[in-house]
Automatic annotation (TrEMBL):
<feature type="domain" description="STAS">
    <location>
        <begin position="6"/>
        <end position="115"/>
    </location>
</feature>
<protein>
    <submittedName>
        <fullName>Anti-anti-sigma factor</fullName>
    </submittedName>
</protein>
<dbReference type="Pfam" id="PF01740">
    <property type="entry name" value="STAS"/>
</dbReference>
<dbReference type="GO" id="GO:0043856">
    <property type="term" value="F:anti-sigma factor antagonist activity"/>
</dbReference>
<dbReference type="InterPro" id="IPR002645">
    <property type="entry name" value="STAS_dom"/>
</dbReference>
<dbReference type="InterPro" id="IPR036513">
    <property type="entry name" value="STAS_dom_sf"/>
</dbReference>
Amino acid sequence: MSDDAFSMSLRPVAAGVVLGLKGDVDTHTAPGVLAGIRGLVLREGELLVLDVSGMRFCDSSGISAFIAARNHAAAARADVVLVGVPRQTLRVLGMIGLDALFTFRPNLDDALSARDANSAGGA
């Protein structure tokens, strides 16, 4: 896989931050993803959204980056949600038992709406 097929974006939202990953998340690109995750400052109660709706391929290095994101969020007492996970990646996460670690949403609007509804219900 090639770095040319990969891009990463960071966007603040009211609930927290969206980290968008497009292209191939693999052994070549995962170190950059990890660096991006480790550089995020999350506050308690915030939401880290990993938007992978543009991801074409994910190997074990990419899955490790998802776990690192979850651990980083947990250390800050923040939440993490995976958005737009491709079917094959969902299947792999399920096969290895990692689907229980994450909340999944089909799209970004759904993730943010669910967060808003949960916040309103808890207030």
